[in-house]
Amino acid sequence: MKLMEQFTDEDFKRTMVGAIRLMGVAAIVVSPLLWWKLGWQSALLFLVGALISGSGLWEWLRLMTAVMARMDMGGTARPMGMILVGFFLRLGLTVVVLYVSLKTLDGSVFALAGGLALGVFALSVEGLRLMKAWTV
């Protein structure tokens, strides 16, 4: 049985990459169903939400990897300026993409919310997988 103190950087990376992969598969499976049921605009809004959520997970992975490397190396780590600039640029781009997609696409806002929630779902599934692996 693994304890929380034994949670490594590799466990974190594996969990995040697994969540991103699960999001991609779920988006590929769900978007044609939404297209068939609600139309292409809703399917595209769902994909926009999933893309935003996936890019958020990827950016979080980059940011936390840099923070963990900085903590492991002490004060000799590279400056985090570029990573933080990328993080805030992605955040600004997200606001623009959300605004433009909601203004131009006449689809279901719930489909967009579902795409955004896909990241939380994928992280929850990967977290449960990790907990199951630790209890075995």
From TrEMBL:
<keyword id="KW-0812">Transmembrane</keyword>
<dbReference type="GO" id="GO:0005886">
    <property type="term" value="C:plasma membrane"/>
</dbReference>
<keyword id="KW-0472">Membrane</keyword>
<protein>
    <submittedName>
        <fullName>ATP synthase I chain</fullName>
    </submittedName>
</protein>
<dbReference type="Pfam" id="PF03899">
    <property type="entry name" value="ATP-synt_I"/>
</dbReference>
<feature type="transmembrane region" description="Helical">
    <location>
        <begin position="108"/>
        <end position="128"/>
    </location>
</feature>
<keyword id="KW-1003">Cell membrane</keyword>
<feature type="transmembrane region" description="Helical">
    <location>
        <begin position="42"/>
        <end position="61"/>
    </location>
</feature>
<feature type="transmembrane region" description="Helical">
    <location>
        <begin position="82"/>
        <end position="102"/>
    </location>
</feature>
<keyword id="KW-1133">Transmembrane helix</keyword>
<feature type="transmembrane region" description="Helical">
    <location>
        <begin position="20"/>
        <end position="36"/>
    </location>
</feature>
<dbReference type="InterPro" id="IPR005598">
    <property type="entry name" value="ATP_synth_I"/>
</dbReference>
